[in-house]
Structures are given as C-alpha cells and as structure tokens.
Amino acid sequence: MVSKGLCRFLSRHSFTSADIYDLLWFTSIFQELGFSFSLNRIVAGIIALSLNSAAYIAEVVGAGIKSIEVRQSEGAFSLGLNSFPTMRYVISPQALRRMIPPLGNEFISSLKDTSLVAVIGFE
User: Fold this and answer.
1) Helices 41-66 and 92-113, axial angle in degrees (round to 10)
2) Distance of alpha carbon 29 from the chain centroid
3) What is the per-residue pLDDT for 4?
C-alpha cells in the first residue's frame, strides 16, 4: 500500500534541485518533531537522489510509451498478438529509441545533482 502511494506521488510530482536540498535535510526535521531517527548521511543522499531520478525517469518512460501511435498496437492485435507481446515486440522497441535522449539528459542531470550531496558533509 505504501509503495503504491509513493509511485502515485512520484508520477504526479517532479522534484527540482531545491527539493533535493530539502530532502537531504529531512533527518533533522524528524529529530525536531521528536522522533528518535538517525540516518547515515550517505543513505540520506542516496534516498534524495533516487527519489529525484525516479520521478523524472517515470515521466520519460510514460511519455515514451504514450508517444507511440495507437495504430501500432492495433496492427499488432490484428496479427494476433495479445497485450504483453504487443508491448514487448512492438511498442517497447520503438519507445526505447525515443527514450534514449531524455534518459541521457537525466543521467547528466543526476550527475550534476550529486554535488548537492556534498553539502551533507559540511555539517
């Protein structure tokens, strides 16, 4: 149940670099609220960067699949393929080709965002 809620949140919201900075400091917020919560700095950085990348990658994959015309799946259904082989052999190869440039951009962006993790070490 929690993972479904997290997936819905990630699919509807995109994080910015300022949000990553806020996520990096979430351990201190929990401690101020009275929770006895300790988290390694590296783990906090990995969680923040993972949530950021997951949001953007989910958008890229969704847009890549939606960019394929409906006629492609209709043609596959007319050949006798059901939904899984249609996605595997017809839609996914075409969508993957369209997803490669934005995924490369996301890789470069997340590489640049790792510099924000260095802020944790200055505490």
Assistant:
1) 150
2) 24
3) 47
Range of the domain at 78: 2-122
Whole-prediction pTM value? 0.69
Angle CA(54)–CA(120)–CA(21) in degrees, nearest 5? 45
Query: Cβ distance 92 to 76 under 8 Å?
Result: no
- Amino acid 107 reads F
Q: Which of 7-11, 42-46, 75-79 shows the highest mean pLDDT?
A: 75-79
Q: How many domains does the chain have?
A: 1
Angle at which helix 2-12 crosses helix 41-66, to 10 degrees, equals 70
Residue found by looking up tokens 């929690």 in the block? 2
